[in-house]
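Extended Data, panel c. Modelled sequence:
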Amino acid sequence: MPTYKIRGIDVEFPFEAYDCQLVYMEKVIQSLQNKCNALLESPTGTGKTLCLLCATLAWRKSLGSFSTLGSQVNNQISGSQSSVNSSQSGDSKLPTILYTSRTHSQLRQVIQELKTSNYRPKMVILGSREQLCIHREVSLLRGSAQNNACRFLCKKGTNRRCNHHSRVADYMKNNPHLGDEPIDIEDLVNIGQTFGPCPYFMTRELQKTVDIVFAPYNYLIDPWFRKGLGVEWKNSILIFDEAHNLEGLCADAASFDLSSGLLTACISEAKNCIDISSTRRGQSSDETLNPDNFAILRALLLKLEKRIAEVPINSKELGFTKPGPYIYELLADLNITQETAYKLIDIVEVAAELLQEDKLQNKKSTTACRIESISNILKIIFRDKGTAHSAYYRVHVREADANAADVLKGKASRTLSWWCFNPGIAMQEFSRLEVGSIILTSGTLSPMDSFAQELKLNFPLRVENPHVITSKQIWAGIVPVGPSGYLLNSSYRNRDSIEYKQELGNTIVNIARIVPDGLLIFFPSYYLMDQCIACWKNTSHGNLTTIWERICKHKKPVVEPRQSSLFPLAIEDYMAKLKDTSTSGAVFFAVCRGKVSEGLDFADHAGRAVVITGMPFATMTDPKVRLKREYLDLQAQSQGGEYKETKLSFLSGEDWYNQQASRAVNQAVGRVIRHCHDYGAIIFCDERFAHPSRKSQISLWIQPHIQCYSKFGDVVYTLTRFFREERICGSTNLKLIKTEVSGKVYFGAIILSVSWFF
């Protein structure tokens, strides 16, 4: 296994490293050594995850041995040097590494990469009860219902105690090697099902002694998850992989929406708690089960419902908006203040537990308790028992389309929102906790400036890595006009034009004819996608066939559904149509920011080209977008506040608006060219991409390859030649690629043996 000396650290890497991989690992180690933050972009297929693991673990190993049993045995054998490392570990705890990604499926891939490395730190992967519970009844529940049921069955003195929970201590004592080798969620569940201990509580025990923790990144962002981790935060290392959505998730985690329907359900559950506690009053000495407490809770919720209904809304489009601190004024009318809020939170949490116990004991429907949302809302409003954070918020009340039931009751369906417009609230908490370094990385972070500005952190180290592919493997072009010379521009003033839709359709017909196998077409919105497809189905060409029929002649179509539940079927449909030999592949019509654009791998024949049909700007009239822009403009004008120490300029609303659209484009473009042997085309079918300001916000690795074609005929000629040449090269080496890559390794020494690419 090759070893590289990087900033004085010996890094063992499973393959011969590319230059861009060495640069990436150098920046990771520099960040860790200097205790500074880093923003690192490296395209999918460049070995980002393995580089990150190897560099981080090599640096950690240089400070002292890992906590695995194997390391402890080696320490005893190897003598003095290991004794020094052990004493260092005893005097001051070595830093914990927290490696986070967006989903568990992404973490599963990270752990597979760890297995290919030479590093074996003591590790654990954290998951929810939903993923780890093996109790016959509780495992069928979801959300807060599952959490409350688990707590109830783990209580001492409970008749129906969970046998899996009670077996954890003995299993951990008899198996101290657990975590020495990389283990995943499925491995933990298999252990639980085979030997009996609860996988969820095993991870909580194991976490106390590990070198590296793997978890979804909401475990760090959410303050209540974070408090429950029990991590020594000082000097710890926080890694956010696939961090391109981090700013949005930080803001969402600190915000809430309380709808009329949710509030009504909470009032009903409070009434149930009064009835249950009244029945049990003579049977239990538990003072927390006082019906009067639940009666107070119900009365407050009814007052809140009335207060929201009385808010004056003069314009349905604009709603009712107030500065963030107004939320305290609204709640003070209900006698909910700093002094009373946490007492109310305690009552709500007892209510949620009481409801769940009653459902379990009486075998009622085990749906989630809605009332727990009130506790979560109050914790957001009164976080850290202060009010200073409210300056970064806006209160908004809006009317929704009332359903039939609301109309009959004469009620207006309203939603009370408290939206956070400073994602930095969550990240700045880590500065207060004195973490060592924060590393944000993804294949698509560009444009980078907004990340630092939105998260209110300094990122002195930044990398925008090139791809490991060569220029022969990518065709990137801006197509400003279609086959008839009509301008392609999907802006609001143009997108409803029949001429534009027809020109775009005829452009896609030509692209579908040229591109082999899979083709991805991304629209700015579902509305525009639906409008275009409807137009193509009804517009004939020479009174013979419609544009849609001409597209279908070359590729079988699949359209991304709006409903999440239908999405897996759409993916299956697309893959089945790719295998159909009656046409030259399939085309997936999708939406920027939709499910197709996020995290899916359309490698090789699944995605030979991606077409971006326009700039995916968010709807300007959306209240959240409008208020975010206003908030940022106000911040930029004031140029004051507590962000001066970060030496960051404020982001204007217009800059943010543009950068969000560009990042959505980069995310969609990243679906193709997924590894070092892959090839494909990236086609921008909107003349606005030719503007220098737009082009500069496209991922840096793509920019050198982009050509702007003033004539559509040049697009057809060069694109045809590109795929003809790549098909010839690819077909003669397909077996070699499959054999050597084996579906797992996307980089390394393998590429050196494939000389036809160079």
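Residues 71-91, 404-408, 641-646, 731-758 have pLDDT under 50 and may be disordered. This feature is highlighted in the accompanying rendering.
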